Amino acid sequence: MYKVLIIEDEDIIRNGLKYSFDWLSLDLIVVGDCRNGEEGLKGIAELHPDIVLLDINMPIKNGIDVLRESEGKYVFSTIIISGYDEFAYAQQAVKYGVTEYLLKPADQEQLMNALEKAKEQVELRKKFEMIKRNIKNPENLNLIKSEILTDNGQTSKYVASAIRYIKENYPKKISMNDLVEPLGMSITFLNKKFREETGYTFNEFLNLYRIQKSIELIKEGKMKITAIALSVGFSDYRYFNKVFKKYTTMLPSEFHDYFQKKNQLGSG
């Protein structure tokens, strides 16, 4: 469930957002509400929300102050809810990567759509932060959490089957369509279940797994990078480089150089 923090100085709007919207139907829960930017910054630090609904024009600290002072410290997505006279001011928030900005009073359907986008954005940011933390230490770079890869009953039989299929067939050209008939379920259902339980699409997970396997082979230092790319399922070497850098922020050659130097030091 995604945690939502509301930062809004007008009581009517703040309480309206909190009590008149069906948060649970979107897998959301309001964990707190704040009356100004200073309270909002404390709430972000203490409650670690996934999504922040943020007003712009507030006392003590405004919405832009909140975005500026929290940038780089916490991982969340932001929906600006602004008055007409503050609309131009709200546009300044774009540089802080806000998901959406809505005009007061926020329409329920617009807010619902914005929240769905915010959930997707915060997932992407969490993945990016995880990769950034990992890349600081190439020795322990794991792109996929071990509990997802382990068939320990935490995923449904459909998702467990899909993950097992990837692990057994990743060097080949495969897709979720291959599992429709064996599992007896629609492609729409399987894709939805896979994303819900892993946080990734089937193709994202497949590419992550392929890159993880390529990293293991690079560490061993027994194969050329071009051969590694082919062995993990990438027929196009340039595309392999692109995907590798997307998930690790480094090129395969840089990883290769790192472990080559490490092995040389270890044998010296």
TrEMBL record:
Residues 3-119 form the Response regulatory domain. The modification 4-aspartylphosphate is found at residue 55. PANTHER family: ARAC-FAMILY TRANSCRIPTIONAL REGULATOR. Keywords: DNA-binding, Phosphoprotein, Transcription, Transcription regulation. The keyword 4Fe-4S does not apply. It comes from Caldibacillus debilis. SMART domains: HTH_ARAC (SM00342), REC (SM00448). Residues 160-258 form the HTH araC/xylS-type domain. GO terms for biological process: phosphorelay signal transduction system. One of its GO terms (molecular function) is sequence-specific DNA binding. PROSITE patterns: HTH_ARAC_FAMILY_2 (PS01124), RESPONSE_REGULATORY (PS50110). InterPro entries: CheY-like_superfamily, Homeodomain-like_sf, HTH_AraC, Sig_transdc_resp-reg_receiver. This is DNA-binding response regulator.
